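A reminder from the course coordinator: this example appears on the midterm review sheet, so study it carefully.

Given structure:
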């Protein structure tokens, strides 16, 4: 299972920017963006991953979901 939220591609940039603005207030946040690329799913939506640091999770008002790995869109080359 992956802890994330499943959103539309259009929502991704908006929500990612909101998360970045919240987390950049922490001294230990050192990323230019929270997550630069969305992770595609089999139903046409994308995933935005839950942060690993608990104080980041606590700062965000997001109901994280458990997403089965089987929902990831795998593109084989």
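Designed residues:
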């Amino acid at each position: 299972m992956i802890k994330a939220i499943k959103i539309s591609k259009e929502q991704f940039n908006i929500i990612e920017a909101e998360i970045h603005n919240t987390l950049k207030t922490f001294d230990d946040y050192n990323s230019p963006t929270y997550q630069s690329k969305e992770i595609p799913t089999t139903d046409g939506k994308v995933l935005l991953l839950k942060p690993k640091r608990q104080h980041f999770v606590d700062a965000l008002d997001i109901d994280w979901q458990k997403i089965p790995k089987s929902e990831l869109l795998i593109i084989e080359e």
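The chain has one domain: 2-71. The first strand starts at residue 2 and ends at 7.
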